[in-house]
Amino acid sequence: MAAPMKPQSLSCVSWSKYLFYFASEHLDFRLAELEAISQATKSEVRFDEESYDVKNPFLVVESPSIECIHRILSRSVLLRSIHQLLAQGTSTEELHENVRKMPKDLLDPYSKPDQTFAMRVETFNKKIPQKVKIEKIKALPLAELGFKGTVDLKNPDNEFHLFEYYGWDCNNAPDEPYHSYFGRKIGEGQRDRIQEYHLQKRHFIGNTSMDAGLSFIMSNLAQVTQNSLVLDPFVGTGSLLVSAAHYGGYVMGTEIDYLVLHAKGKPSRSKQKVRAIDESIHANLKQYGLESHYIDVIVADSSKQNMWRDQSYFDAIITDPPYGIREPAKKIRAATEDYIITDDMKDCHYPQKEQYELTDIFIDLLNFAAKYLQLYGRLVYWFPVIRAQYSESNIPQHPCFKLIANCEQPLSMKVARRLITMEKIHPYKDDTAEARIDIDHFQGSFRQKYFHKEKEIPNKTNPS
Ligand SMILES: C[S@@+](CC[C@H](N)C(=O)[O-])C[C@H]1O[C@@H](n2cnc3c(N)ncnc32)[C@H](O)[C@@H]1O
């Protein structure tokens, strides 16, 4: 997980308090996404590191301007909404007390006669009947705040929320909430994009297409912004290019499998008998009106660097390499010296492929990124792990890169994948050392480990 932002020193700008309400998924990615977006959009935020509890979807954050808050909302897929925090308390009495203490003019702009409003109650980890919700609203000491407008529950000008947090354990929710917050809604995050870009509605998908939500998170961590040049070296059906293009990136990719790239294989949708003639990554971008951000994708082996001119081009490299479980990890075999391809064979010659070990994939990826990423460009990639055997020493390192975030997505009790975000902080030079991994997590094939029963897996990373 990314290190939470540290409170900054006092400045003359007054910082207001906001309540960030996160979605209950990809918990480990929240702060990393927030940190990446706030940095990429130059939106200052700070919060108390010690108050952050990954199980609690509510986080009190300070920011010097509402514009910063809107910029964060315009990108985050992990934030449900952000609210101007008006009062909070660890008991109902304390909340009410703090509502009474609110400056009387705080709500003036939102309580005028021509402003409609709605009050809502949302509880986390406890369902309460509508009748009780109404009682909670009535119990709020709001009379002194002088709402002069009328109530409009459907389409109000201003929405006020009472949030109650009843902890995490659904079998032991307390009678009273652990924490209550009262706030005015500023806006919603980008959760709707997840439906809009859902793979079910995507023209061209494959067995390993990345879902829309995670693709957006990856582009956020990679800090893709308007005109970023973005590469996915294991592009498959290009889902990562779609999210990068959505944020303004110009996108390109390489893929070793001609059949995948040209949609010649079996359709992935169970009801689809044959592939449509126009299935392609370009068509996917066109589907979302993003075709002007498509540069190209080429059939190529990403383990080979010699097709690229020596230059740092890319602002971001985002990728999901093949783990060898659902898709083969192959590379072109080195040519044997005594083998000559005659002219008549050239048109139909396919070079031989060989197994591409996962450890080599990551080492090659870091070496490639060190050379071809711009300084301060980001490399974001998935790293599969057997959870019981994983340690931070398994993560590849490179002298040009700093590790920014390492977020776990559990896939089962046994297996997870970790989203690694690295930033190039030193320029690449001819004498720069190569990438290294302190302890090899895969020791050959991840596939073998994946399908082996737990007790049969030799745990070399932890010899004890
Ligand atoms: C996990 S999939 C990527 C899926 C992709 N993110 C998507 O949304 O469709 C990995 C892809 O890498 C491709 N691949 C395997 N070895 C490769 C290599 N040496 N160079 C380029 N692509 C390779 C596989 O054919 C596969 O399509």
From TrEMBL:
Keywords: Cytoplasm, Methyltransferase, RNA-binding, S-adenosyl-L-methionine, Transferase, tRNA processing, tRNA-binding. It is found in: Cytoplasm. Residues 201-328 form the Ribosomal RNA large subunit methyltransferase K/L-like methyltransferase domain. Residues 17-191 form the tRNA (guanine(10)-N(2))-methyltransferase TRMT11 N-terminal domain. Its EC number is 2.1.1.214. One of its GO terms (molecular function) is tRNA binding. Gene3D superfamilies: Vaccinia Virus protein VP39 (3.40.50.150). Belongs to the class I-like SAM-binding methyltransferase superfamily. TRM11 methyltransferase family. PROSITE patterns: N6_MTASE (PS00092), SAM_MT_TRM11 (PS51627). GO terms for biological process: methylation; tRNA processing. This is tRNA (guanine(10)-N(2))-methyltransferase TRMT11. Pfam families: Tmrp11_N (PF25904), UPF0020 (PF01170).
